[in-house]
Amino acid sequence: MVNKWDLIEDKETNTIKQYTQKIKEAISPFTDVPILFISVLTKQRIFKAIETAVQVYENRQKKVVTRKLNDIMLPLIENYPHRPIRISM
């Protein structure tokens, strides 16, 4: 979540897309991370933040078969050997 979105001045139509792209580049190769722009002060997207947090929690409860995990992780490890990859359960 990106808080204090209300402080960004001169927002245009593509401002969120531009910020989202920069964040995605910074956290690459991870693509399944939800990115929300919120403002606690103006209560902008606060309920969406809660909904997303619940969805992330539910997704974390899912079990992944080891073979499937290996099939997904091996290409990532090969393509990004300089990046540490940590899996927490």
Quick synopsis:
This protein has 89 residues and is mainly alpha-helical. The chain has three helices and no strands. The mean pLDDT is 86.
Describe what this molecule looks like in 3D.
The protein has helices at residues 15-27, 46-60, 66-79. By secondary structure, it is mainly α. Helix content is 47%, strand content 0%. The relative contact order is 0.13.
Order of helices and strands, N to C? HHH
Termini, distance in Å?
Answer: 22 Å
- What ranges have pLDDT less than 50 throughout 5 or more consecutive residues? none
The average pLDDT value, as a whole number, equals 86
% residues in beta strands: under 5%
Tally the helices: what do you get?
Answer: 3
Question: What's the shape?
Answer: flat
Largest beta-sheet characterization: none
* Helix-residue proportion: 40-55%
Number of strands: 0
Described by its quaternary structure, the protein is single chain
Radius of gyration of CA atoms, rounded to a whole number: 16 Å
Give me some keywords for this one.
flat; single chain; mainly alpha; 89 residues
